Predict the 3D structure of the following.
Amino acid sequence: MRGRERFGKFAFLLRVFTSCLSVFPARILELLWSLSSIFDGPVALGLRYSILKTLAQGCGDNVFIGKSVCIRNWSGLSIGSNVSIHAMCYIDAAGGVTVGSNVSIAHQVSLISFDHTYRDASLPIKYNPNEKATIAIDEDVWIGCGARVLSGVVVGRRSVVAAGAVVNREVEPGFIVGGVPAKKIGTTS
C-alpha cells in the first residue's frame, strides 16, 4: 500500500489525534517530537505528522517526516500535501520556509532561512544580528541528500537540487542544479 492510500485509510484518526494534541502547549509537543524522533514505525510517523500539523503555520495531507528530523521556529513553516522529508534533515524557519506539494526532501538536507551578519566589528560575528529571508520550494521538486538551501532562495517548480549542492540563489523552474555553490547542470524536460 502506497503512502497516499495509507494516509487516506487513517486520515480520520489522524484528524482526531491532531485535534487532541492541539490542547497541549508547544513545549510538550516539541518534547513528544523529540521522543518520537528515534522511532520509525507508523505510530511515530502519525505522531510526528500530528505535531507538525499542530505547530506549523500550515501542513497539508500525506506528509512523511522521517527519523531525527530537527525543526526550529515552527510557526514560520508551511508544507503542502504529498511531501516527504527524510531522516536527519534540519529545518530552521526563522525567516520562513514554504514547501509546496509533491516535494521529496532526501536525508540530511538543511533548509536555513537566516544568515549571520558581520558588519558590526565591535562585536564578535556570533553576536552580530541575523538576517532572515524566506525559502520557497515550489511544487514538484526533488532535493537530493545532503543538500543545503540557504535563506532567500526560491526553488522553482519541477526542479532538482543534486545531492550535496549548496543553493544560495534562485533555481529556475525545470532546472537541475548541483555543486558548491549550485549551478545549472541540466533540465528536467
Q: What stands out?
A: The chain is about 25% helix and 30% strand. The mean pLDDT is 95.
